[in-house]
């Protein structure tokens, strides 16, 4: 037997839902952290147009955290400097993040000793970066009570770190490196490499002499030309690959 529709309740539910979403959007805007509106946070520096989305994850030791310009720090991202809050960590920054860095939702950057992230790095959600690891030297003491090991972490500019990757203490990742989703990185990774696995290993690398080895299996994507209108893009999307290739062959060489 069909249920009777309560139009008043349905209308009221829609109104409440709209109010909740509108209110939450306002809270997110008001709660985000920027250089102009840092709230209670006193970062060592925070660059132009950088924004930490609300709700934030755990943040402490911010006087020793330096954030570059045009960074996007997504919701629930943890940024910490030092083992615990309210420590004096000296005159130098502990966590340094370059310009144009994107940290995906739920990521953690734990900088008990120095962590440096170069400019234009992109991190998927739930990436974990730490400069500290538990030690288990003493078999008679609980592992959580033993003094941890700390080693600096450095991530070069232009890297892409996939979802759920783990960057361990002592990692030195070069320029323009791809870290596959779920990889566990330790040690040194050369420039222009792709690493995957746990522990992560180089599965592809570019060098000036040999190019990409093993060779790439797909052609490089073609950037959208300047000045393309939405209508032109829609028309292009309707063409098959052969038609696109014929059009490209008709274009005069620059």
UniProtKB/TrEMBL annotation:
Signal peptide annotation: none
Source organism superkingdom: Bacteria
Cellular compartments per GO CC: cytosol
GO molecular function, one term: O-acyltransferase activity
Keyword tags: Repeat, Transferase
Pfam families (alphabetical): Hexapep (PF00132)
InterPro entries on file: Hexapep, Hexapep_transf_CS, Hexapeptide_acetyltransf, Trimer_LpxA-like_sf
Keyword Plastid: no
Record family assignment: Belongs to the transferase hexapeptide repeat family.
Protein name: Sugar acetyltransferase
């Amino acid at each position: 037997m069909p249920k009777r529709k309560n139009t008043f309740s349905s209308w009221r539910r829609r109104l409440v839902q709209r109010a909740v979403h509108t209110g939450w959007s306002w809270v997110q805007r008001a709660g985000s952290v920027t250089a102009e509106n840092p709230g209670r946070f006193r970062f060592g520096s925070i660059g132009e147009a950088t924004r930490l989305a609300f709700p934030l994850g755990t943040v402490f030791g911010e006087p020793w955290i330096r954030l570059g310009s045009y960074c996007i720090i997504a919701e629930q991202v943890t940024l910490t400097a030092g083992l615990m809050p309210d420590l004096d960590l000296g005159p130098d920054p502990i966590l340094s993040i370059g310009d144009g860095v994107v940290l995906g939702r739920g990521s953690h950057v734990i900088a008990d000793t120095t962590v440096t992230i170069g400019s234009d790095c992109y991190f998927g959600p739930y990436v974990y970066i730490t400069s500290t690891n538990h030690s288990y030297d003493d078999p008679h003491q609980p592992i959580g009570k033993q003094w941890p090991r700390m080693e600096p972490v450095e991530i070069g500019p232009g890297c892409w770190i996939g979802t759920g990757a783990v960057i361990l203490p002592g990692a030195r990742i070069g320029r323009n490196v791809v870290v596959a989703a779920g990889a566990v990185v330790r040690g040194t990774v050369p420039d222009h490499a792709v690493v995957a696995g746990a522990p992560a290993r180089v599965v592809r690398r570019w060098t000036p002499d040999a190019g990409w080895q093993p060779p790439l299996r797909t052609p490089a994507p073609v950037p959208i030309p300047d000045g393309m209108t939405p209508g032109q893009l829609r028309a292009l999307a309707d063409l098959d690959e052969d038609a696109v290739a014929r059009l490209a062959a008709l274009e005069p060489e620059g």
